[in-house]
Design brief:
585 residues, alpha/beta, Gyrase A, domain 2, four-stranded antiparallel beta sheet, 21 helices
Length: 585
Amino acid sequence: MEKFVDLISQRVSQAFQAAGFEPAFGRVTVSNRPDLCQYQCNGAMPAAKTYHRAPIQIAQAVAAQLEGDPMFAMVSAVNPGFLNLNVSPAFLRDYVAGMAQAERFGVESDPNPRTIVMDYGGPNVAKPLHVGHLRSAIIGESLKRINRYFGNQVIGDIHLGDWGLQMGLIIEEVRERQPELPYFDPAFSGEYPTEAPFTISELEEIYPCASAKSKVDEDFARRAHDATFKLQQGDRGYRAMWEHIMRISVADLKKNYANLNVSFDVWMGESDAQPYIPPMIEDMKAKGITMVSDGALVIPVQEESDSKEVPPCILVKSDGAAIYATTDLATLVQRMQDFRPGKVLYLTDKRQALHFEQVFRAARKAGIVPPETELQHIGFGTMNGKDGKPFKTRAGGVMRLETLIAEITDYIRKKITENQVVDSSEVEDTARLIAMAALKYGDLSNQPTKDYIFDLERFAAFEGNTGPYILYTIVRIKSILAKYPGRVQPDALLAPETKEAADLMLALTRCADSLWQAYRDCAPNAICAYIYELAGAANKFYHETRILTEPDASKQAGYVALMDLTRRVLEACIDLLGFEAPERM
């Protein structure tokens, strides 16, 4: 289906042309004065400069062309040259009825779908997820769903940090604690144990202990570096230890991401890119795009158009070690080979913007990606506490993600238990669903690039611009539909007779525009803004309309059909945001 506002624009453009003006001046927008009209066209203003006529004369000429048109209930030319428009109830009803019966409410797919690789995880193994991992997971999961909704094949890759110094630190700390283990015996030739010599809880204690020790014990730090080198060179015992670390860490990560309703299609990490590094560097050298600077191998990426210095992209440090940029470039080589994507999208903290600019330029210069493949980095802001500083525990440490989820779930559980509207058997599932809505909507309703304040009381409120308010609206509609004795008939929709009905239908017509904006701009906040408007219109309609007590059966069927379509749109939108509604709350 064509977008509602586009249909109106087409008709007004035809009227401009019929009145002797360029049709391009007929673009229509939603009115910024809803007290005066539903839609407006300001095209007479720029047209006046082209045709040397007063704007009001042009607006009046166009209005005359639209007189009696069945699309409009009101067309008015007002000074200094605005066209104020209200659509006819019949036209509005027909469009909404079409939405009700169309697949995906008539939202059209991208005419040029692509394969998209999305990199939106990035946790380090052997370390618990903390609040710093929240935004990449939540925003990434939503963008993955939005891109799929518009017809793209999306491959979500967690891109684990599994090959750096933290591995050497863990191995060396385990060696100090349990030197008798066979992994540290160069002469051992048997099969290594199938069970890891540590649990996930012990592993999460081992890493920070080793990290702290390396900062004060130079000999330990040196041994950890040596262990990292041996692992990366294929030492058999260290490789077996690494596999233990990976297995129990990934199992724990999957559990924690599942609690967030976040999933990945590919569980690859930095280690998977290592085989691609040597041939990639040799190819870069052969192409003559590298140089040695202060003992390091680099690719200059400065361009003449740059107003600021862009440092070279370092491939190999002076000590012979590869760094993040090297791994990211090698990962791109791997992704192009495995998936041939039309786009690669990265979600990280916005402070990594320069890093990705260097990597993207180096990848283009080296021919790793073809010109038609888009590389995009979305840098997100930080989640801050009420003090405006990065969110921490009450003791001042970095909060674990599972602790944050538990706290917000506990808070919601107490609220719904006090209200006593949910059976005791449903409390846990309901609390979990509402907590996810509060957490995700609280994040996604902000522009991804902006910092925001995490306010538990505000995010968990059942009123206002919050996830629980959206869920409450859906649950209220479900309650109405459950009490309706008949079967919902989408074609029973009637032309609106009240302002509340018209406003709700108009809000529904903006579905396609809002979803397309979210897709085009990588901005889930556009969906949040839309469903808040839609939920508000639904609640006003509910308050002002007798639905279940309406004596006219055809009117009642029309009201129920309108409520059901609203529910379906809201549920489709929250699914794109990554959460779902309970049956009761």
